Amino acid sequence: MTDENTQADQSDPLPEELKEGNEEEPVEIDEMKLNQLIERRKDEQSLGGGVVAGIVAAALGAAIWAGITVALERQIGFMAIGIGFLVGFAVRKFGKGMDSVFGVAGGALAVLGCLAGNLLTSCIFIAQAQEMPVLVILSQINPAIAVEIMRLTFSPIDVLFYAFAVYYGYKLSFHPLTGEELATVVKQR
Fold first, then answer.
1. What is this structure's pTM?
2. I need a labelling partner for 12 at 20 to 30 A (CA). Which of 26, 105, 110, 163 fits?
């Protein structure tokens, strides 16, 4: 290829498939096969499995969040993104969901994991300050006390990181159709 041809190729924004002389025909989808595939995949969904896995992931993420925050004596908001990823992947793997309810569950569980991580961190710091076991502090927490602790430790930047957690928890909770699955619905010529 000469330098002139290379320069022409780099400056030509038109994709190959739209240029004259391209004889590839568009792919046709077999609607019946596609509908069967979607129905089969929907039958494999397990909201219960996704939610249970999401709860476990959120709890694990909260414990990791608290452990890192206490060890560093500093909150790192980016851990919220990690909780969103962890919860989203757990809901996807065990829920195998395609419906929007899986995303909603993933987003909600991700933000609950973040809130639990912040609450657990505060309880650990309180336990250290009071020279008491963490489990004693946790056993005395009721919803009103939890809300008050969260109110006192809230920072406006938390909203941003919680939003990231919700976004990734939602987005990653869906189990999309794979390329192999989609290849099975293309009409043969």
1. 0.80
2. 26
